[in-house]
Design a protein that fits this description.
Strand order of the largest sheet: 8-21-20-19-9-16-18-17
Number of domains: 3
Number of strands: 21
CATH architecture of the largest domain: Up-down Bundle
Helix content: 40-55%
CATH superfamily of the largest domain: Calcium-transporting ATPase, transmembrane domain
Length: 779
Amino acid sequence: MTPSLATNSERGLTTAEAQARLKQFGPNAVVEEKVHPLRQFLKRFWSPIPWLLEATIIIQLFLGEHIEAAVIAGLLVLNAGLSLLQEARAQKALALLRRQLQVTARVRRDGEWTTVSAEMLVPGDVIHLRQGGIVPADVKLADGSLLVDQSALTGESAAVSVAPGKTAFAGALVRGGEATGEVTATGARTFFGKTAELVRTAGSANRQEHEIVGVVKNLFVVNAAMVVVVVGYAHHAGMSIGFVLPLLLTILLASIPVALPATFTFAAALGSLELSKRGVLITRLSALHDIASMTVLCTDKTGTLTRNEATVQTLWTAPGFSEADLLRAAALASDPAGQDPVDGAIVKAATERGWRAGELERTAFQPFDPATKRAEAVYREAGGMRRYVKGAPVVIGQLAGVAESLWQPQAEAMSARGQRVLAIATGDETAVRLAGLIGLEDAVRDDSKTVVSAIQNAGVRVVMVSGDNALTARRVAGEVGIPGELCSSEKLHGDLCDDAMDCGVFAGVFPEDKYRLVRGFQRRGEVVGMSGDGVNDAPALRQAEAGVAVANATDVAKAAAAMVLTQPGLGGVVPAIETSRRVFQRVITYTLAMLTKKIEMMALLVIGFLLTGHKPLTPLLMVLILFLNDFLTMSLSTDRMRFSFQPNRWNTRGILLAASVLAAGKLVFSLGVFICGNYVLHLEPALLKTLTFATLIISSQAGIYLLRERGHFWQSRPSGFLVASSVFGLGVTALLVLRGIFMPPLAPAFLLAIFGAGLVYFSALDWLKVQLFTQLKLR
């Protein structure tokens, strides 16, 4: 907090002083860091997988393979463009969601009260706050008192009293009272601003990229081993490096997952588009992988599981009064036209019981004053003037002159349920009688219990993390079905040991605590989701792998989250989990198909060379395979997939082992065709390359349908786009092979024989796949 600066409260700052301080402290705003679009685009080329592709482009240019280099460069640019376009669309949608509200402040300058933009406030300014306004900066009250709603800042659903000498924080809503005070902090130095700074420093690792880099590293180990074998054989046979260099380049091309970045981006973009139609905005595509892997969801209470609005829940009537009498008296002590949520809740409850506003003439009204802790209204009735009072039970009990034993047990019972308790009294101008007590609480959303149950059924542990008090948090957790103990204050603010992390409810939590909780779960190996709506949630939203901002979230929370819900409540999390897990399964299928195909091709190139001394493929034919296989395999991102009922995790060891075994199975087929062509049919080397080209295309297409279903391949129907892509790829292959484009032509009988043999062989290989996936827990 900025130290208080010398200010004359009678005249405030002068214009010159305000201008000088504005230059010193800057505008009263939290600056949002913006990255230039060109820098965002170029960033897509700076990660391990693009580096591999870029290195290949350089090698190809060096060897004069300009067409091949252009193909890979085009795929790189396509991937970067898709990613940037999709995230830009999400950010644009977020910008449209934000309310364009110009906040102003009543400030004393040069001895006169004037209205200025909140951004122009500086430390030392004297400002006036009143009911219905927003606290524009951190303000230390000098006189008067306020009742403020700080739920967006602290998570506390109940309004808080701020007395003279205390500070009202920037971003809070003034629910009652009036006060004058001095601005003590602006911009990034406010409570709000410090939270925003914590948001900028928070962040989690990209798990998907880490796993994929690990897979590709293993692929390149295989590639390096095969290169060593080829070079060693060539040296032993007396072959020149110039003779084997095209083969080495072909092996390198065979090993590089050219379409991998574009496929992952495309799959995530389609998933994001599907979710946007269901009211869920994905702000970064990599978040879909994290949502699919999410094991723990830390959910805020206020405004997420609850409505963030007061609701009358409990009534206790004093002797001589009915519930209708109690609600009528409470409504008459409220202001139907005001902005106090408590007044609104009471008026709504009374109206539902038949009360109608305007039935009596109100002659005086005093809204709730935090200093006196009561509100009062006076009405003209047939028998004369009548008073209606509501407020803190102790205050109203003393005003009515009743013993605490009459109302205190009932008040304590309501408080034990986490309710806010108000006492109501009515009478003439000389004395009032206690009418009863009203218990209000932040009502749970109608769908919260169903949504929490659905998330739990998806294998995700749900815990509540709230800034509210323990009683309220425990009550809401019980109503929505969140199990587990309440975490004690000592555990929460301690070292967050395992006992603390096993709790189901965390109450009295500050912004730094939410951030620490997310980090604590991550240290245990959990993939953490965090849902919330307030400024207090933003650092944890950014730190979590899957930050979820709900519909009524502040702009700071939306900017920090990976996913924004446009419909109230947590309902959008359920389709997000289902869709993200489908996307995850598509990615796994592509990775399996890619690895299997790459290992098969590299092994065929090396073994074929060792057996015949000829190069089985040219670099140009390998580039054609990249187009007809790698590029078309992207259609897997549209395939029909069943989502898992448990969080998805990368089983890297299982994937590599399965790919290796299945690649060996596929190699039996492709190498068998190659050996038959060379030793049985005695094809010339050039025609043998055509045969190898056609065989690898058919083997790759068969592999896609083999791997897309974890059970037997006939148990689910592929997407129309996947089938169309296969038909297109096989059609182009037939055209090239039969017409002899870029290669000697092959007789139609050979092509049909390869296709028929492949159909029979891969149908048999499907039984091995099912057993293998079961053993490796990939089903």
